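Office hours follow-up: a student asked to see two folded examples consecutively, so here they are.
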Amino acid sequence: MSETHRESLELFRRGPEILDSAIEGVSAEASLFAPFPGKWTIREIVRHLADTELVVGMRLRQMIAEERPLMALFDQDLWADRLHYNQCDPFQSAALFRSLRDDISKILDVLPSEEFGRVGLHPERGAGTLGEWVTRFGAHVEKHAGQIRAIREAWDKR
C-alpha cells in the first residue's frame, strides 16, 4: 500500500477518536444548544456523522465491488429533520459511528493500493476515486469536530 493511502486510511480510522474527543463530557443541555438560528446542535452533528457513515460505507462498498457505480444522493437537512436528529443521544450516535467506521476500515485495510483508484460516479461531484472518497470522509469528521468544539465554546460563553 502506498504512503498516501496509508496516511488517508490513518486519518479515516482515527475518525471515531476525533469525534469522541470532541464530545467528551458534553452535557445534555449543551448538546441541544445551537449558537445561531438555523445551525445544527451537537446532537444533530453527531447523528449526521453516524448517518453519513451509513451512506459512505455503502458508497465505498459499491466502488470496491462494482464498476463505476452511480451513488445515491441524500438531503442531509431533510434527514436531520425527518429522522429527528435532535432527539438522538450524541454518545449513542458516536458509538454507531464508531461501529460503522471500524467495519469499513477493516475492508479498506486489506485492499491493494491499485484498488484505491476504482471510480464511483456522484451525481453532483462527478467521478471520484475510492482514495479520494476515503480522504474526503477522513477530513469530514475533523471538520465537524471543529464545529462541535466551537459550539461548546459558545455554550460556555453564553
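And the second, which I mentioned at the end of office hours:
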Amino acid sequence: MDVPQFQALIADLTRQLDGRAIDANLADWLNAHYGAGSPGYDALTNACHTGVAEGWLCNREGGGIRYGRVIKPTPDTHGFSVDVVDMADLAGPHHVHPNGEIDLIMPITPGATFDGHPAGWCVYGPGTAHRPTVANGRALVLYLLPEGAIEFTRSA
C-alpha cells in the first residue's frame, strides 16, 4: 500500500458519496455498506494502519495528536480531502465544518470511541462544529472533508 493505492481506495468510496447530502442518512448508509467488520471497512482500516506504520499517514504531531492530510481535494476524489489522526484519550482543537465532515472511526484500543461513536462512521452536516474527542483508549480517525473545508476556532 502506498499513497496512490490509498487514493484509489478512497476514490472508490468517494465516487459513491459524490452528490449525496452530508447528513445522518449518509451515516446510516455508510454503516450499512462500509460498517465495522465489512470488507470495505477492513480494507480502509488495514490501509490506514499500513500508512501509519510506513510513515506516510499521521506524519505530523502536535498537542498529543499525530495527524496529516494525505490527499488534497481533487476531481479524482470527487472533491474530498483525506486527513487521518491518531488520538488517545484527548480532545482535539475546536473546528467548524463549512461543508460537513465524514468520519471513519478505527479503534486501536478495543472500545475506544470518537465523539461517543464506536467503530464505524459518523457524519457531521454543513455548518456543524465540535472538539473531536477520543475516549476509552486510542483510535485512528479518517476525515473526509468536502472541498477540504475546515475552520479552526478558538471556541470550545
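Two things to take away from it. The longest helix spans residues 39-54. The mean pLDDT is 95.
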